[in-house]
TrEMBL record:
This is Aminoacyl-transfer RNA synthetases class-II family profile domain-containing protein. Residues 1-100 form the Aminoacyl-transfer RNA synthetases class-II family profile domain. It comes from the Eukaryota. GO terms for cellular component: chloroplast; mitochondrion. InterPro entries: aa-tRNA-synth_II, aa-tRNA-synth_II/BPL/LPL. Keywords: Protein biosynthesis. It comes from Salvia splendens.
Amino acid sequence: MLEEAKKYDHRELTKKQELFFFHPLSPGSCFFLPHGSRVCNKLLEFIRSQYWKRGYEEVWTPNMYNMQLWETFGHAANYKENMFVFEVEKQEFGLKPMNSLAINGCAISLQLGTNVKSGLNP
């Protein structure tokens, strides 16, 4: 059973298929190789086509926010201990620990002065 599972180990398959690799200098983040980039781009094309079919639109949001945003919407209390937090020019910033519709929607809503579509109902 263990030998069978080893044949399908994603860490080994990605090496053989030359899709991506991980490196200790950037733990948890993969380096996409050319073939892996092509596969990823095809998946993104498909996902985007499904968004558009269902009436959704795409936005790009930052990976880093001033901690004021996290505190304003109560996320700091829940996530700060698991976030990478750092200070720049006496201001505290945090990297997003996840891609959260809630925090991204809050930031966009503040800028636009509107509510962002929740994503739960098209």
